[in-house]
Specification:
alpha+beta; five-stranded antiparallel β-sheet; about 180 residues; Alpha-Beta Plaits; 2 domains; 14 strands; elongated; SH3 type barrels
């Protein structure tokens, strides 16, 4: 196996895993770090997750989803020993980079990923598309039918075009206030 060419700097690397095994890889890797006494070279193992609110048929459920399925982030100094411990962890297929050169993530990328992972910002996954026929199930416009005009997943809002006064009037609603007809 080719030796890892490295610098002596502590950096974050993306490690590719079999999809669905990210948590197991993180757990195994943490155990291997302890077993091999690598705490001085491998500092942190993270599976980036974000909270999402899914709204389907007017029901709101909160879930946690992996930001990058199939990847685990590792904060380490890329010595040959550290590289070997990570590379030989079960279900790890390799580092992101070229065949014998792991490419570290930029500090800006890592900050962005960790903020997104640790943040309280919740993304909304709304099971509607513009043009869908919907009925309003809550609020002052309850029981009116219309069609979806716009969807704002960041805020969890839906703009519904409701026929009123002889024309389509846009009404902004919470995503759980509407249901597909």
């Amino acid at each position: 196996m080719a030796k890892q060419t490295h610098g002596g700097d502590r950096q974050w690397y993306a490690v590719h895993t079999y999809s669905g095994y990210e948590d197991a890889v993180a757990r195994n890797l943490k155990q291997r770090i302890d077993s091999f006494g690598m705490g001085e070279q491998i500092f942190n193992v993270v599976v980036p997750i974000e909270k999402k609110i899914k709204i389907k048929n007017g029901r709101r459920t909160e879930t946690k989803e992996k930001i990058f399925p199939g990847y685990v982030l590792v904060d380490m100094i890329a010595t040959d020993d550290a590289w070997s411990v990570v590379r030989n962890t079960p279900q790890v297929t390799g580092f992101v980079g070229t065949a014998n050169q792991a490419v570290p993530l930029s500090p800006e990328e890592v900050d962005k990923i960790l903020k997104r992972s640790e943040g309280d910002t919740v993304r909304h996954a709304i099971d509607l598309a513009p043009g869908d026929a919907v009925v309003i199930v809550d609020g002052p416009f309850k029981d009116l039918e219309g069609k979806v005009g716009e969807i704002d997943e960041e805020r969890g809002k839906v703009k519904v075009l409701v026929p009123m006064f002889g024309r389509e009037t846009p009404v902004e609603l919470e995503a759980d206030q509407v249901q597909r007809v």
